[in-house]
Amino acid sequence: MLVVLHLLTLLLLVALGFYVFVADPRSRAHQTFATFIAFLAVWTTKDLVFWNFFTLDQAVGYWAAASFVTALLMQFSLVVFAWVFPENQRTPRKKAAVLFAPGIVLIPAALLGFLWNSTAFNNGLLKLEFTPLAFAFVVYVYFVFAYGAFILFRKYAKHRGTQAGQQIGAIIWGLMITGVLKTLANIALPTFDRYELLPYSSILVVPGVLIFAYAILNFKLFSLGSALNQFRLFPVGYKVAISIAMVAVGSFLLFQIPIVWWSFHNGMDAEGWRRYLVFSIVSALLPNLLLVLLILRTISRPLRRLTVAAVSVADGAYGTEVDMRKTNDEIGLLANSFNEMSRKMADDIAELKRLNDQLVRTEKLAAIGTLSAGVAHEVNNPLASISSMIQLMQRNGDNSPETTERLNLIAEQIERIKRVTGEMTNLARQRPSVRTNVDANEVIKRALRLVKFDSSFLDIEVREIINIKPIIIAADEDQLHQVFLNLLLNAKDAMPDGGTLTLLTETVDNEAYVEIRDTGVGISETQRKQVFDPFYTTKPAGKGTGLGLAVCDSIITAHGGTITILNNEPKGTIVRLRMPLTQQNSDD
Q1: For a pLDDT cut of 70, what percent of the chain falls above it?
Q2: Burial state string for 83-118 with b = 16 or more CB within 10 A and e = fewer than 16
Q3: 21 to 25, 29, 35, 180: CA distances (angstroms)
Q4: Burial of 309 (0-12, 13-18, 19+ CB in 10 A)
Q5: C-beta of residue 33 within 8 angstroms of C-beta of residue 21
Q6: For residue range 349-388, what is the model confidence (pLDDT) as tens digits?
Q7: What is the band of 122 on the pLDDT scale with cuts at 50, 70, 90?
Q8: What is the b/e burial string over 323-351, where b = at least 16 CB atoms within 10 angstroms of the residue's CB?
Q9: CA neighbours within 13 Å on the CB side: how many for 438?
């Protein structure tokens, strides 16, 4: 029964120390607690070996030496913890050197047996004849313990009423419980030749250690939220440790026990030992290979995939993602974060390219606009004079038919020049837009009614997919009407032999979304990149100036929107506009 309790205590201590350490490996408090647990595990192992597997009268000296040294090391770790918790500050090296200096003498003295004159264990009685140095050792151990407790009491007074104060208070209670139980089992009762609790001294510290760990983890050691959080984020360290433990236990059960039975069932002779050594070495290969495979699968392969993806992104393949199964550990979180970062990088670069193209286009428009304003001014003045003279000549009834025809031709060309200079003036004009809340549905319907007067629309089927709710945007209604009118006329010109014109309006992500689709001749990828450039046109000579879409783009951009050209499968073109909705529309 005693060996089972010692084993369970040892397993609990190892699991608890590992749990606290992995929860925050960089925290000095967690590091020191793990060290304290390690020394306590050594104490438990010492009791496990001494009280269960050795002849007690022969091993008392070793047990006593291990007890003295381990007790002192535990107090050292306690003082270090008191120094660093809860601020996570560094250990004061000078103080530590002064406080721990006696250990340089006392620890070797204990290991060499200078703390007692004789040791014995007869008839259930432990007999130790201590030297004065042993009593000095015990006093020093309790002094270090008291010093650590004193530091914690001072910090408790400083942080009283706070979360840190509650943590320190719980730790003090844990230390008091541990100190009282250890003193009772190891010193007080043995003084009166009572050794009933001595074999259980390592087990008695478990309650205090649990309180200790509970306080360090901010009172979340046994909470459901903490358990679920650890399940959500299952660190790689846990996985590796569990993998090693599972392989070790599985190897022991599957191989070591059968090998031991087969090797020594006829006695522990030389042949038995030869069998055991040979087949133990052979049987160790499979678990080790399995362990390597598990570690490679858990760590190496995901890291290699992450490395390859990172190199691809560094080479310019923005948007590259790591293709690996989702895991709830640091590598899984790193992969998810990398994929998200790569996607955002690709989106940001695409947006930056779009903004750069828009900036270049704006600069072109500004330069051409300035030039156009000057050209239009210089052309319009003499053009007005020529137009007046043509009108006077047309009013003269003495013109021959040939002269009248020529005058009409000249008048038509003058009107064409006026139209071009008018569009140039519109492009150059930077007048502030008069924005009000307008319904995009009504504006596009008004533009459609106007263009339907053109006889060319008789062969075109118009489909209206208009949102039943008003789509309210802050815009200059005249400018918006000009945009829709221009786009509808372009769609009409793209379908000289008839076709289908589809108007779509809706709201998407707090934006007004308008599409004008035609089934005309379509537009190539190269043309799509140039259609917004001034004076670029896909229409035959004399049919367009190449300024209409440039003006539309400048108007929509000034309203905080975007205009894009897409292919309409199987044929035709889609012009898509996006403009921000007003708050009024968003509330509706």
Answers
A1: 81
A2: bbbbeeeeeeeeeeeebbeebeebbebbeeebbbee
A3: 5, 9, 9, 26
A4: buried
A5: yes
A6: 887 777 777 666 666 666 666 666 666 666 766 777 777 7
A7: low
A8: ebeebebebbeebeebbeebeeebeeeee
A9: 20
